[in-house]
């Protein structure tokens, strides 16, 4: 099962977090076997850079020269040998069998030779071998923690902006750890003891969050009914920052501009309904729009879901919405724990196109915001080019018509426990919130609330 998912990830740009759970649900595997398959899949994808370097050294050839089906079998076995407590004989045998079954007998012999070479050193030994002659500190961290070097540099810069660069290794380690599973209990919908079969521990920060029990969250009736959702606490806080920035007035109109896959939209819809407001969701990609409709299905009536270019939609509706959520498309560097393959897909050359899109969407959202309304600019990335710089440029272009709201103060009034946030001293600093996996146990969400003046 792990091999099939990894083949789909590497061959078809699929996402493991979308493929693996339904396969596990259909498999009937015992809980310990399901956990083993999960670690095989996600652990291999998290460590892909390190394992590819080991495989290249052990085989004497670049991984690009190895047939893809064989390479994925080697990656799985490398993770078992270097990242899990699997017996060497079993790990080698499985890798050889997978290579032979998917690429023929010659591939099996090749896999056997490579894997036996890999068994000559443990993980620490291979890291030491690969680090020989590497002097650049970010290149060394990239090898040690299996991140692309450009991602290490971007994370270093983001932490340095908070004068916390000494936390870089802790952040990289957090990216490689399995994240805890959090639930959002949608306000106003039934998820009491009749719907949730066992008491749930409250989340650390989110007032609507809970820690998911061990095992498949879908075992809970509230999750199956859609009144509770698997959702990272950072995403919950981003939605609540918008919905609870100020009291809701009946009749308000809200917009989720880039709503896919629908987690924030569902929480916003629940919050809007409680206050007598209405939500419109928009998502350009049809498949993701379908996921938004599914997420909003428990509401009666379900909020409408449009399929429009977000910037064009917003520009056509000036001063139309009291609150707007812009969860902008981004590199996703803040969610590498949950989407481990994302770190290997993005390249530095992708950032300019994304920042241009983010700026275009934010300008459109500002146009669509009513004077005195609230706009949340959110990214699941701490990259400065996608966060602070985007907001700075948008505020500058608005020429005094847009002001930052004190997002930190809003979230301090929402969170169950204080968020450990740096104190900003320059203009605009301290008004945003940057969450971190190693510090808050959430995805690295960036949240900035904005408002627009009249005229």
UniProtKB/TrEMBL annotation:
Enzyme's top EC category: transferase
GO molecular function: RNA binding; RNA methyltransferase activity
Keyword Repeat: no
Protein source organism: Ruicaihuangia caeni
Sequence ranges assigned to domain SAM-dependent MTase RsmB/NOP-type in this UniProt record: 151-453
Annotated positions binding S-adenosyl-L-methionine: 258-264, 283, 309, 327
Family assignment from sequence similarity: Belongs to the class I-like SAM-binding methyltransferase superfamily. RsmB/NOP family.
GO biological process, one term: RNA methylation
UniProt entry tagged with the keyword S-adenosyl-L-methionine: yes
Active site (UniProt): 380 (nucleophile)
PANTHER family recorded: NOP2 YEAST -RELATED NOL1/NOP2/FMU SUN DOMAIN-CONTAINING (PTHR22807), RIBOSOMAL RNA SMALL SUBUNIT METHYLTRANSFERASE B-RELATED (PTHR22807:SF53)
Annotated keywords: Coiled coil, Methyltransferase, RNA-binding, S-adenosyl-L-methionine, Transferase
Name of the molecule in the record: RsmB/NOP family class I SAM-dependent RNA methyltransferase
Cited SUPFAM superfamilies: NusB-like, S-adenosyl-L-methionine-dependent methyltransferases
EC number of this enzyme: 2.1.1.-
Coiled coil segments of this chain: 151-178
